[in-house]
């Protein structure tokens, strides 16, 4: 019997980042984090289980995937099989409507869509908390792409429960994430490997010790739609994570000269009165979070900014959801 389901999910951008694991085997993060999903950037994933398949197959944007990326997905499918108590292999087809390898993390939307489509295909009806828990084993940030809008990923250190929950819907605040792409190359050290070095930085302890304070400020800034407060805490948190990366052993430098130049430009644009702030993940691309009234002027400035090769943007996005088995369109450039 063929069992099939399809789902879509959006990537997310964290205002308060997670970096480091307190328990690697159970993929428990060292600190809680807050993010928003990015609408318009979408992963569409179909999963089909069939007793005649000899192993799991994965195609990404029409290309057959092998090696380490396939192994990572096969391990994730093992978890889904264990939940459903079956031993049947799958054929997975996943498409991003944003340029592949554009430096926008597709692992978050990818594993969120896979968790939902994979479990639904086997007839499991998991709660959002259960799906988020499952997705975090594929990629930590995928746990935050399960619920919609503005999301907090919390870990209870006593029970080990660790999943993300929405604290404000997507239409709560019309922020825009405008992403300046500096590089489409794969990072030499991905986030999963990079964050294992976090504890070698003498700054990580201070970063973790201050995390509850930053989370509280960020949550309130979002709930109160206080852009100045969100801006200050978002930049501080990104700078702190990158300070930890740069002081790890061996050190990790994810920024390019253009990334720093753009961060400095943002500080100038703020003094002109523009509501814009920056944050960077484990890569050189700069996420400019802004209010919609400054979007046009920002896009104009970023497009011509030295080193920028592409600009994408999206407003707060909804949760991962099941869809019929049709494809998706291509994101705006
Ligand atoms: O989702 P992972 O486990 O690959 O880690 C992503 C970590 C950052 O993107 C750098 C920060 C975050 O919280 O999204």
CATH topology: Ribosomal Protein S5, domain 2
How far is the first residue's CA from the last residue's CA?
41 Å
Q: Which ions, cofactors or small ligands are bound in this entry? A: (3R)-3-hydroxy-3-methyl-5-(phosphonooxy)pentanoic acid
Radius of gyration, whole Å: 19 Å
Q: Which strands sit side by side, in order, in the main sheet?
A: 8-7-9-6-1-16
| Series of H and E elements | EEEEEEEEHEHHEEEHHHHHEEHEE
What is the CATH class? Alpha Beta
Whole-number mean pLDDT: 94
Number of strands: 16
Largest sheet: 6 strands, mixed
- In total, the number of domains comes to 1
Helix content range of the residues, please?
25-40%
Strand content: 15-25%
Q: Which runs of at least 5 residues are low in confidence (pLDDT < 50)? A: 329-333
Number of helices in the DSSP assignment: 9
SSE class: alpha+beta
Q: What is the second-level CATH architecture?
A: 2-Layer Sandwich
State the assembly state of the protein chains.
single chain
The outline comes out as globular
Walk me through what this model shows.
This protein is α+β, with helices and mostly antiparallel strands. It has helices spanning 67-84, 107-121, 128-135, 191-194, 204-209, 211-223, 227-246, 257-271, 295-303, and strands at 3-9, 12-16, 21-23, 28-29, 33-37, 43-49, 57-60, 63-64, 90-96, 150-155, 162-168, 176-181, 276-279, 286-290, 310-314, 321-323. It has one domain: Ribosomal Protein S5, domain 2. The chain has 9 helices and 16 strands. A hairpin with a 6-residue loop joins β13 and β14. The structure holds (3R)-3-hydroxy-3-methyl-5-(phosphonooxy)pentanoic acid. (3R)-3-hydroxy-3-methyl-5-(phosphonooxy)pentanoic acid is lined by residues 14, 17-19, 33, 105, 107-108, 139-141, 191-192, 281-282.
